[in-house]
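Quick start: read one record
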Amino acid sequence: MSRYLDIAPLRSLVAVADCGGFQRAATVLHLSQGAVSQHVRRLESTLGRTLVEREGRGSRFTADGEALLLHARRLLTVHDETLDAFGMTTARTLSIGSTEHAAAQLLPSLTSSLTGTFPQHRIRFRIDRGTQLRTALQDGRIDVALLLGPAEDAEARTVGELRLAWYSAPQWRPPATGEPVPLVAIDAPCALRTRALETLAAHGLAAEVGSEAAHLAGVQAAVRAGLGVGLMATQGQCPEGLTERDDLPRPRPIALSVQPRRGLRPDLLTGTATALHKILLAQ
């Protein structure tokens, strides 16, 4: 029987603990769930101890499993530092999810900043709705999500604010007094949709969502067609074919927060949050 502890099984064990389960660990490690389970069984066979036990639909670490985790983290740190010292580090991936709002203005600068901060990581982006990004975080398919609104999770951080502005087609004119303002918005739930309705209501203006779209491109297309006004976060860069409106109530900026997946290295979250904070201050 082998009495050696291989690196790959140790990395799987740590991922199960950090990600909260075998399936999520498999997603983060780009392995099958069966492969991760086999890694843990190999460790158990080598040590002659039970490390992880089933508990309902989930699993929990035994006392021996918790003890091995401490040693595994130290071994992996030394292993990775040794590879770094000899220039043999395998490129890692930092996967960032972002809502569409202001992505064109923030992501190019963020890519440049993170590439310099984490040269051993490839930066990959996923653009999606906030709801889908939260699900991707839970499943371990992305590492960090850029979300509209203040930080709500204990590990999330608010990094700044996005300026909001009303946009319409050049030929669009406000409705007659007493008529509702026609809005174009992303399907609910949407933070900007809510902010648009609240802003108009706070100034005694009736509003009606007359056109909806699943994505920002659809909102901009409907606004460009003159179907109504849309509230967007463009950081001062007017979308092509649209014009900014100054005859509607000025909306308050909206907070931007970053939320990590469970078990993400703290320095990766801090580096991402710091980079975004600096980018927002400079705009």
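The chain is about 45% helix and 20% strand.
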